[in-house]
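Handout, section 3.2

Students often ask what a structure token actually looks like in practice. Rather than define it abstractly, here is a full record for Ornithine carbamoyltransferase. The first block is the sequence as you would receive it.
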Amino acid sequence: MTKAARPAKKPAPATQAPKQASRPRVAAATKSSGPVLLTPETLPAPVMAGRDFLSNLDMSAQELRAVLDTAHSMRRGEWRGVRPLSGLSLALVFEKASLRTRTTFDVGMYQLGGHAITLSNQEIGLGTRERVSDVARNLERWVDGVMGRVYLQQTLVELAEHASVPVVNGLSDMLHPAQLLADYQTIEQEYGQDLAGRRVVYIGDGNNLANSHIHMGILTGTDVTVVTPVGYEPNAGVLMDAVKAGVNVTLTNDLAAVEGADVLYTDVWISMGQEAEADIRRRAFRGYQVTPGMLDTIAPGGIFLHCLPAHYGEETVPEATEHPKSRVFDQAENRLHAQKALLYHLMGAMKPRW
């Protein structure tokens, strides 16, 4: 098959609303009747067909709504039995180890009728054994999409520049957008779709999770506060994204900002690749640990989220992830539903190569 036969990758629209589904939407089922199962004829139209997903800002607010609606529908079991990605394949490229990312993308492709192949960095050697651009040009001729869990955002940018198939950010040093889809699905399960003005307080390192929370605040209107020690603030370019969008983000090192939060979120203090800074970071973040006592200070109906893995004794304790306000394991489950929804909206319009 020549490359000309593949659908061209579409640029992300700046303000253009996504195409409306031409097929009827199926109403949510009642508890007594069980889920109303979709059929190939009643699936929603993919809204991001052929595009890359390197950042949450690669989608519009309307496209985010479509993806989350699909994720909720998948969690309700309404997609059981349909295989919209039948005959399609996804390469899973890992520079960093993974439990949730590998399992959920692999299982997600299987449940949608497709196939996933896992490639470790020992097998590929991104940028060492082979140029990133050469890896991209090879993969695009075999697979229909690429998910990368990598050290550098620039690696994903290069993959996307040179591959004609969708490239998905499964994690980088800068952003973790797929995780935030699952996070906001979890938040919507608690509060509904209208999240404007809800207080999302992120406590800890101003890392890829903090950066992606800021991007989601831009898309959803949530009031994002980042509580972090001096010197560990989110990326300046991401903060500028918020300024350009006219969205206020509160930065503070005052732990009192946690009080009254609708959502309290934390992540590890020491990410993969930062082991040499472990002692310095533990001293800097002392006091920023989420405990049951801290959870008592958030809103009465507030929830606690952590993307996992948890380094118990550092950013949190087992009593917090097992607390009645914790939704940590619902959040982990939603990685499967949210990423399946994303893959459908990126790849659902593709035809098998064979």
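Discussion prompt for tutorial groups: The first helix runs from residue 61 to 75. How would you have guessed this from the sequence alone?
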